[in-house]
Amino acid sequence: MNLLFHVTTAQSGALLVPLVLAARRANASFAAFFTHEGVKTLQNANLVAALAGSRAVVCEESWHRFCPGLACPVENGSQTINSALMAEAERVVSL
Q: Torsions phi, psi of 85, nearest 5?
């Protein structure tokens, strides 16, 4: 995987959508991990659509804390998966 987008803030969505689209234009492989308030960005339908076909994982604990009662649009995971994605990525973009 070329890139891992590590999303930690609720404001990251404004940056993440154009970064994901740029990665697609460059034919870069990427994944995204959402944790803490960054999980709130997954309430943006444009972001979820931009992530289609790529691996997107949310910290399950953060999802339940910041988006209680909502259906999660991506894979539920843990910080262990976050660590594995970090190890696999050539570069990490922390937002």
A: -65, -40
CB hemisphere CA count around 77 (13 angstroms):
19
Say if residues 93 and 15 touch (Cβ distance below 8 Å): no
φ and ψ at residue 70, rounded to 5 degrees: -95, 150
Concatenate the DSSP letters of all residues of the chain into one string: --EEEEE-SGGGHHHHHHHHHHHHHTT--EEEEE-GGGGGGGG-HHHHHHTTTSEEEEEHHHHHHHSTTPPPSSEEE-HHHHHHHHHH-SEEEE-
* Tokens 């991990």 belong to residue: 33
Contacts of 63 (CB under 8 A, 6+ apart): 34, 39, 70, 72, 76
Per residue in 2-59, pLDDT tens?
999 999 999 998 899 999 999 999 999 999 999 999 999 999 999 999 999 999 999 9
